[in-house]
Specification:
There is one protein chain. By secondary structure, this protein is an alpha+beta fold. 35% of the residues lie in helices and 17% in strands. The protein has three helices and three strands, in the order H-E-E-E-H-H. Strands 1-2-3 form a three-stranded antiparallel β-sheet. Helix 2 runs antiparallel to helix 3.
Length: 119
């Protein structure tokens, strides 16, 4: 089968468009979950998520869930190089990223007077 110059040009443009579409679908950089970070000190943290770098976002993201004073919950993004995030990430890796063991990491962060004792 012989292609004319016009058909070759059309085919080339079509292949380039498909390649560009596939690239954009798999490499969406700049769509991080955390556009900004909150400062947080010791708080009533109930859960956290650690998102590894991916094609969607090129940095590690740490999102905390905490209980506010009015008993509602709030999700906060914290800087991945901050003290709390670094400790959570280390613990997350130590427990082999097992969802069922997350509370071990949260309990580890609490001050001694905040921990519940079973005496």
């Amino acid at each position: 089968m012989v292609l004319s110059k016009r058909n070759c040009a059309f085919l080339l443009v079509f292949v380039a468009a498909v390649c560009l579409e596939l690239y954009q679908a798999t490499h969406i950089v700049g769509r991080c979950r955390c556009p900004s970070f909150s400062r947080i000190y010791r708080s009533n943290i109930t859960d956290f998520q650690v998102y590894e770098p991916s094609p969607r976002c090129d940095s590690t993201e740490v999102i905390l869930t905490r209980i506010k004073l009015d008993n509602s919950t709030e999700k906060l993004c914290i800087h991945p190089r901050g003290k709390i995030a670094v400790n959570l990430i280390k613990c997350w890796e130590r427990i082999n990223k097992e969802e069922s063991r997350k509370m071990e990491c949260i309990e580890r962060m609490k001050r001694p007077e905040e921990k519940t004792s079973e005496d």
